[in-house]
Design goal:
homotrimer; alpha+beta; Jelly Rolls; five-stranded antiparallel beta sheet; 3 helices; about 25% helix
């Protein structure tokens, strides 16, 4: 482990939001003073998620959010009474833990890839925890 | 690697079941004699999964299970003749490998998070393999 | 980190295809000259994915592909104009980063498990990046 974790703090601004955090992750990695390794990104929340996909055309992340909403709609009969069951379910399916390689002090992604934080129950103050292994 | 893997053994008691295994994971981590690192949790099965979500209100895990069953119903026309295709598909979507940070000898989760084992084709004897990196 | 990454090159042959790459992963691991550890498999694409499930009966992977297509159909009204939004969404849900334990120079899987590369927008030249930690 490359020392203590770094924390990326995010303020989401709406109920649902998909945010490209690639630059924030690269900033956090600088803090470890190590150029090669593997970066663990961990979301300590139960109504948010993290994933990698296309960062070039913003309509891609829009389609991802809309499709998750179509599959797991808000207005079904859920047991959990806080009204955010769809957010918990999306978080469980998309995932909250992601491992990404680091080369030359930056996350080594494919040409079109970005790292995204998915807010499913905002607006809230959120964190992504970063470790460099 | 912190030595050989530890094995969490589980006996599931019904066809579908979502079990909070956070305490079992913390017990397993004690066996490595190392207080900091990253814990790899690996499910060596094809009809079960592992994920992190809210462990406080049991209705959350109920909604997750019910919604997966609505999306991937039992009674469609599947090719695989053993009758458990929905279990294989749920396992592939939710995932069988999970990386969680460890701090002070325990998995470092967010305030509301627990680690869950999801049984989709029980009852069976199951395992979760644990490594501390 | 066990040195530089190894690259598995794949040529997919149709629009959608799920390919068992377990043997290719084991070959790649040999190149690291290390028998124990954890293998990071990373797909540097935004319309493909990687997962672990049953490798014995090919009808299982067929059911997985068909079900993903039923959940995320081609003919909906997507914003992204390249016509491959379903592929981006499937990639985000199934995942592009996978961690698998290595024992005795091979990935340590359960009895029925194989590692699969999922092509959702082929045919294309694809890669899977392999690291041994």
């Amino acid at each position: 482990m490359g020392g203590t974790k770094k924390v990326i703090k995010l303020r989401t601004s709406s109920k649902e939001e998909i945010i490209d955090i690639t630059d924030r992750v690269n900033e956090a990695i600088k803090g470890f003073g190590k150029k090669e390794g593997v970066c663990l990104l961990f979301v300590p929340h139960t109504t948010a998620a993290i994933f990698v996909n296309e960062g070039y055309d913003p309509s891609v992340k829009k389609d991802i959010g809309v499709t998750l909403g179509r599959l797991i709609p808000q207005n079904l009969d859920y047991s959990h009474l806080e009204g955010n069951s769809p957010a918990h379910i999306k978080s469980s399916i998309v995932g909250i833990s992601l491992l990404v390689p680091v080369e030359n002090g930056q996350i080594a992604l494919g040409r079109w890839q970005s790292v995204f934080f998915a807010e499913f129950d905002g607006p809230r103050q959120r964190e992504v925890w970063v470790w460099l292994l």
